Each structure stands twice: as C-alpha cells, then as structure tokens.
Amino acid sequence: MTACAIETTAEDGDREGTAVHPPAGFAITANGAYGARLAGSGDALYAERWTLDGPEPYAVPLPTDQPEEPDTRLLPLADGRVLVCRRVDGRRHTFSLLYPTGPGTGELRLGSVEAPGPGRVELLPPSPDGICAYAMHAGPESTTLWLVAGGAFGPERVAELPGHCAGGVWLDRTGRILALDRRLGDGPVKTVAVDLERGGEVSPLLQITEESDDRLLLADPDSGLLLIRSDAPSPGHERLGWGVLGSLLPVRFPECLRLDDAAVTPFAIQPGQVLMPESCGVALRIDAAGGSWVGLWRPSGRRMHQVAAPPGWLAGAGTWSPEGVLRLPCSTDALPCALAGLTVPPERDPEPEPEGAAEGVPVSAGAAGRAPDAEDGRPRACRPVPLQQAPLTDRKPAG
User: How far is it, in rounded angstroms, from Cα 160 to Cα 146?
Assistant: First the structure.
C-alpha cells in the first residue's frame, strides 16, 4: 500500500486529534501556492488562508468584525489575498478581499451583484492567472457571468449565456477560455467553451452522441487530458471517462473507474506532463456509506489504486506537484494545518482489453473497484512515514 508523508505545523496538545470538518469547501489556487477555507465552529466562523508552497504549510486566520455565515464562499488569489462572497439579503451578494495586516485583517470591499432570479451566485474555480476571479448565476433560461476581482471598477458583467449552465473548468493558462456544462431547454447537457475576451462567445466542446449528457469535470492545459462524465456508453447511467483536448480519438470509459457501491469524482490532475496525457496522475474522491477515501489512477494504467484518506483530510481538496506527489490538506485538533503526500504505485504488466468493448467508446480493463482490506469496507489507514521511505509496492486487488 502506498504510504503517506505528513508535513505539519502543530500546536501543543493531544496528538490524537479528531478531524475538523469545515462548513464549506477548501479552495486552492491554480498554482497550488495558497488555499482558503472557513474555519471555526458554530456562530464563530472566519476565513482562514493556508500557505502551501513553503517548507511546511501554515495557516493565517482572517477574522473580521462580524463572523462569517456558513454559506460564505472563499477563493484564494495568487498574491495571498482571499476573495469573500457573502449573500446579504437573498438576492444581493457582496465581494471583498481579505488580507493580513499585522495583528488584524484588512478588507477591501469590491462591490456587489444581484442574482436575477432564484438560486445564489457561485464563485467559479480559481482562474489560472491567479489575479482575476469570476462568479456565475444560473437561471432556468440564462446564465450570467461576472468578473468580481481583477477588474478596474468592481464587479463587471462579462457575459449573458442562453441556457442553464453549471460546472466550470479552465481550458488554458491565461484564464480566457472557460468550459461550462449547459442545458438548453429540455435538451441534453453538453459542455461548451466560453471565450471571456470576446464577450462570452460560445462554441461546442464536448458532444459524444447527440442524445447523451456530457459533462467536463477536469482539464489539464499542459497535457490536454480531460476527465468527463457521460451516459453515452450506457444511456441513463453516467460513467467516468477520459479524452484528450483536440484529439480525434474516442472518449474511453475505463471499467476500473466504475464502482457499484460508491461515487467516484476526480478532483486533481498532475500538471507538467506536456503532450503526455496518459502519464498524468489523477486523484479521485471515493464516497460510500463507510466514508470517503482516495483513488489514484493514470490513463495508461489498468486499475485505480484505493488508499485510505489521511486523518483530517478536507475531502475533495488536493493538488499535484509536477513530480507526481499528490498533496492533500488535512486538519485535526492536534494538527490544524497539515499536508499529506501520496504517490501512484507502479503499474503491473498490462492486462488484455476486455472482449466486447463498446464501439466508439473503448473500455479499458481493470479490477472491480471495491474498497479493499478492511472490515468496514474502507481501505486501511496509511502509516505516516517520510516520503522518500514510502513503500511503493502495489495493493492486492479486492477479492
């Protein structure tokens, strides 16, 4: 089993801490330098910024005069500031930038936007340029995009798109081309590319069949690797697959990514593998009745390696180094700011392709993905050891 290395900053106290679960998610900048989350508990929530690219991680609290609401959204920027999106009166959403100022917290108010209908304004994933930040409101018939940080005059409306849009994946390193999953009327979901420098010009990006629901989950601009969820290979039942941006080859739906009793969601792709999409490490979150753990996989591989989540993992958050180390943010009472490092085990000899693979959507072979080696259906926890000593022997497949 792949072992994990723990890099920590710790306070004095009991070393047997319990996991700390934030009320909202943990966002990481595109370059992996900073993260942000809501910390605290109950009625005393506050923004917290993590620095991830130093010798060891550390957290800086950014409290303001008023505690944050549980539905406050945070987004870290490359300069270390944290964007805060607060819902004020149901429809109006305000935006501010928080930053440390000696013993206190500085706050730069950027302005507000109003949602033109039901639902709330959501922040899009951190822009690759690290400077700009975007927000989206999806109505039943149209979707509005705003530039909420990085502009000259506060929040600016940049596009109004027909249809109901969701998701949000950046396709380039400049923050110009954004992929969104769009539904027009009662039609299927299709991923489109939106050019933010041309007024939100829309072009088709992903259409496996005319009737299938095709969603883009992740993309890596270096290699062109795309992670896709679609019901094209089995109508009515969505599968996880992969393809390559600009390639004429069909999307593949590996059997090893299909679990009968768990949901599998990719959350990070290894960068720096220029023109080598099959060599990219992919991190996946596995959720089942017994909890959440981590899947490690490469498109060139024939199986997904399932590894226990480190204690206090902020589930669904993580970032790869170009060298192939997956860094997972963790927080427990004893270790409030930590990173766990995982690597993909070496692959065994290739197995033959299964007979009867669907035409146009090839299926790669793989072991049936059940959580291995534990009575409660979850992987056994990995023992924290220095990464250079971590054993990289393969895990036995589930019986």
Answer: 9
Query: In this structure, what token pair is assigned to residue 323?
Result: 């060298």
Q: Average of pLDDT values for 306-325?
A: 94
Tens of pLDDT, residue by residue over 83-102, are 999 999 878 999 999 999 98
DSSP at 313: B
Place of tokens 């059940």: 370
CB atoms within 10 A of CB 345: 19
Do residues 36 and 48 make contact, with C-beta atoms less than 8 angstroms apart?
A: yes
| Residue 348's pLDDT band (cuts 50, 70, 90) | low
Mean pLDDT of 302-327: 94
Interatomic CA distance for residues 54 and 359, integer angstroms: 48
3-state secondary structure 43-60: CEEEEEEEECCCCCCEEE
Integer Cα distance of 139 and 141 in angstroms: 6
Q: Identify whether the C-beta of residue 372 lies closer than 8 Å to the C-beta of residue 396.
A: yes
| 3-state secondary structure at position 110 | strand
pLDDT for 365: 22
**Residues 241, 228: contact at Cβ < 8 Å?**
yes
For 37, the token pair is 């989350």
* Beta-strand pair 337-342/92-101: unpaired
Residues in the chain: 399
Q: Rounded to whole angstroms, how far apart are CA atoms 90 and 120?
A: 8
DSSP string, 336-351: SEEEEEE-PPPP-SPP
Identify the bridge partners of residue 320 per DSSP, sorted by sequence position.
326
Residue 385 has pLDDT above 90, yes or no: no
Q: Are 253 and 240 in contact (CB under 8 A)?
A: yes
- Dist CA 263 CA 239 (whole Å): 10
User: Distance (Å, rounded) from C-alpha 233 to C-alpha 82?
Assistant: 41
Element (H, E) at 330: strand 326-330
- Measure the CA–CA gap between 214 and 174, rounded to whole angstroms: 25
Residue 327: name the closest of 80, 1, 50, 11 by CA: 50
Q: Is the pLDDT of residue 79 over 60?
A: yes
Q: Is 279 helix (H, G, I), strand (E, B) or coil?
A: helix
Instruction: In whole angstroms, give the CA distance from residue 382 to residue 293.
Output: 11
At 317, list the tokens: 């958050």
